[in-house]
From TrEMBL, chain A:
It comes from the Eukaryota. It comes from Eucalyptus globulus. This is DNA polymerase delta small subunit. Residues 186-395 form the DNA polymerase alpha/delta/epsilon subunit B domain. Keywords: DNA replication, DNA-directed DNA polymerase, Nucleotidyltransferase, Nucleus, Transferase. It catalyses: DNA(n) + a 2'-deoxyribonucleoside 5'-triphosphate = DNA(n+1) + diphosphate. The function of the small subunit is not yet clear. Its EC number is 2.7.7.7.
From TrEMBL, chain B:
It comes from Eucalyptus globulus (Tasmanian blue gum). Residues 19-33 have a biased composition (Low complexity). Residues 34-44 have a biased composition (Polar residues). InterPro entries: DNA_pol_delta_4 (IPR007218). Pfam families: DNA_pol_delta_4. This is DNA polymerase delta subunit 4. Residues 1-57 are annotated as: Disordered. Transmembrane segments: none annotated.
Amino acid sequence: MEIDAPPPPAAALQRKQSAYLSLDETFQIRKETYRGQQYSQIYFARLHMMRTLLYSLVPNLKPHVPVCTVLGLEGGKECIIVGTLYKHMKLKPTILDEYSKERSAVPLVKLHNFMHPDDHLVLEDESGRVKLSGSLFSPASYVTGVVVALHGKETDAGDFLVQDVLEAGLPSQLEFPLKSREDKYVVLVSGLNIGSSTCNPLQFQLLVDHITGHLGDEQEQGIAAEIVHVVIAGNSVEIPRGILNRQNLASKDLSTLSEPIKELDILLMQIAAGLPLDIMPGPNDPANFSLPQQPLNKCLFPGSSAYNTFKSCTNPHCFELDNIRFLGTSGQNIDDLDKYSEAKNKLEFMERTLKWRHLAPTAPNTLGCYPFADRDPFLIESCPHVYFVGNQDKYETQMLKGSEGQLVRLISIPKFCETGTAVVLNLKNLECHTLTFGTSV
Amino acid sequence: MATRSANMKGFFKQKKNTKSTSSKKGSSKRSPTNASTVGSNVTQPPALISHGSIDLKDDHDQAEEVLRQFDMNMAYGPCLGMTRLSRWERAQKLGLNPPKEVEILLKGDRASSECLWDGRV
């Protein structure tokens, strides 16, 4: 009688590795002080950088049209002006509404989107501002803070009739490294919301187990061994804020407040023990409010920060893995664009921010931002290969092609607590697929 | 709003003093650089007028005048909310070629580090 020979001892699977380079320096604020700086400084820096860029691009697109400033406009003469757009919105909430006499007339329903057919755009530079008109120039796709070049002429009514819009377009991109021939995966996840009553802790535990190779047979472990990096794009905890509204905080309340962070630390420790992990702050995380959000403090993660694979990053986050450039945010920039303009999906907003070369054009108008004086850190100088946005409603992805041959993978990462879905990206060919965990029986 | 010399009334047009008084709520550390003296003849004794022109410059000198022109120049961006030196450095960083003499004046420590409108707006 033959006895089946025992299976040969499996060789220990080795996890693949990749070279990581962090490019978050522009987003870090070393000496954050509020001395009464004004936001005019960041707008000046933005206008200057973008205008220099547009002045170099405009002669190639429209060679014979003269360029002038807003105050230098002459009636009826065709020219190109460059400036910052301002969108005058009737429904945009302003602090002055609190003092207006007709308070009872203001609807109490909070709108999700503040657009109105009467919105109009104004172009502004240091010399002056001019109202824009023109049928082929719809204010619906633009927001305040975008710097563009406009070709048109001044009408008798005093506004500027737009014939053509010239955006900066996608920035130049470093060549995609073709030498990486093997499959290496990056897991992108966001919106864990640990500590929330609607979050099922089993789902994230399953994801952690899968990534660290504790799930499945050898073949599945082999797939997990090809995951080289994990990025958590914001909203990892949900702190029970109702407790903070009470008059007195009992000591029991203090431990309730810190429960979600402790739970997250235990889970992140399991991931950090195995592979490099980046965690970004989101709108609900215990980090500062205004962009760029600073890295979550290492004291919040006493267990995970013992590992050198654990990295707390800024929001927005920019890094390179094997010379492939990643750029992403936790969602605030795209969500704000969604409130003040419209597009067919979130990917279209992302495409617009790349074409405008600015991550968050609505900052500081409607999106909180630190008052930088000497630079605008949200300008996109080099085109990323992967551009991701976290905390969105659903998973969407698209490959965007630029005019100079740039290729960008746009990814909209869904909220994990609602969908149970994480995104897995293959570094070899920038293809994406999802990883969904269901726990319903 | 003071006439500079009492015995020249009617000969020269009365000119309003355009400098405003320094802000009362300004920090006590800063001495009022733009205070105007009302009604006294101390700074403009008639003997000085005999040189031909009225000295309208008050408390700031040639160096301060150069720095004020730098503050007002729109090409270097808004001046409020930044020290003059950091505004100069920003202009340098953005490639705007700000005049070297402004840098020399600012680093020389004789000039005011804050812009023209500081404390007055």
